[in-house]
Amino acid sequence: MIFPVHYMLFFFSLLLGSLVSISSSSWFGAWIGLELNMMSFIPLITVKMNPYYSESALKYFLIQALGSALLIMSSFLSLSHFFLASVFMTLALLLKLASAPFHFWFPQVMEGLAWPQAFLLMTIQKLAPMVLISYLMTNSTLIYMIIVSAILCATLGALGGLNLTLLRKLMAFSSINHMSWMLIAISTSDFYWLFYFCIYFFIVLSITIMFHKLQALSTSNLIQSDFSSPLSATFISFNLLSLGGLPPFTGFIPKWFIIQVMVNNNLIFPLFFLLASALITLYFYLRIIITLFTLYNPILSFNMKYKPNTFKSPHLTLTTSFNLIGLLIPLYLFIS
Predict the structure, then answer these.
(1) Cα–Cα distance for residue pair 153/277, rounded to 1 Å
(2) Does the keyword field hold Transport (predicted)?
(3) Buried b (16+ CB within 10 A) or exposed e, 81-93
């Protein structure tokens, strides 16, 4: 998809809105940054005159407007009832973040987006609300709310992705599941959730570049694509296994750190839900991988016309190789 040049203006104002929200010294300034971010993302959604894009833009606007209204109401309430205002602020930010139990809008919006916009929604659009939530982690009740939301994200994100064939919805529920790990990290330390977010950013970048290159919107599109080959199946497998957090891929490293932090903080009960949900998400990633390799195996496939290996992309190879950095960790431990 070729974007017009003036869309770069909306992209930079989107980043500017996130920076204004993060660096603001008041909640009113944070609200202004979030509004700038929202109003910059909506033109990026409607890159073409398409009813699906328009529907997603309208849904996104209504949900974000509701969260903004709740946030600005809470900032006014903070003058008299600070604790109650903090609770409503947390709920508003969870709504903007598509964190459970306010996750209902996220898969529906994702279903109508192109892959570049889906990448922005899964990564950059979540940065500012998570930073603002980390500012509120000064009260034990708010921390408890975040932990409960993380447990719900882990459970609903894993169960919602079962039996799905649409890749954008699958990635949406996967993002909700990964949100549980980041919320737990926010409740403990700023370093760990920022580290997790950076790793997640690059893994999702490699996956969305891959699916955008293949023009794949469902699992059947992965097989029928003109670029489909055993090499593309291998790249997809590396990306999905890293996204699922399977050791020793790169996606396992931040989960490893967070597991250690949760054990040190006696968060055994939430850790059980996070690990169980990780196994379920790994199941529906493996279902896609096994299907791909089964159909590309000459012994197990029937009446399949093989296509030449035309899947050559240096930048895609570079982004996919990021998922193999985790393979160096056991080597480093062995040498040291």
Answers:
(1) 9
(2) yes
(3) eeeebbbbbbbbb
Q: What is the domain extent for residue 150?
A: 7-335
- The pLDDT of residue 335 is 47
pLDDT of res. 328: 67
Task: Determine the pLDDT at residue 46.
Answer: 83
The whole-angstrom separation of Cα 198 and Cα 192 is 10
Structure tokens at 306: 């093989």
Determine how many CB atoms are found less than 10 A away from the CB of residue 215.
14
**Within a domain: 1:** no
Q: Considering all CA atoms of the chain, what is the largest pairwise distance in Å, rounded to the nearest integer?
A: 72
Q: Establish if 2 belongs to a structural domain.
A: no
Query: What pLDDT is stored for residue 333 in this prediction?
Result: 46
Strand, coil or helix: what is 215?
coil
Q: Phi, psi at residue 38, to the nearest 5°?
A: -65, -50
Q: Minimal CA–CA distance to 111: which of 57, 178, 48?
A: 57
Residue type, 232: S
* CB neighbour class for 4 (10 Å; exposed up to 12, middle 13-18, buried from 19): exposed
101 preceded by cis ω (within 30°)?
yes
Q: Distance (Å, rounded) from C-alpha 213 to C-alpha 222?
A: 11
Cα 44 from chain centroid (whole Å): 18
The length of the chain in residues reads 336
H-only helix segments in 24-50: 27-45
H/E run at residue 19: helix 7-23
pLDDT at 28: 86
Report the domain count for the chain: 1
Phi, psi angles (nearest 5°) of residue 218:
-145, 170
- Whole-number pLDDT of residue 290: 85
Note the pLDDT of residue 326.
67
Q: Which residues of the chain have pLDDT under 50?
A: 1, 301-303, 310, 331-336
What pLDDT is attached to residue 319?
65
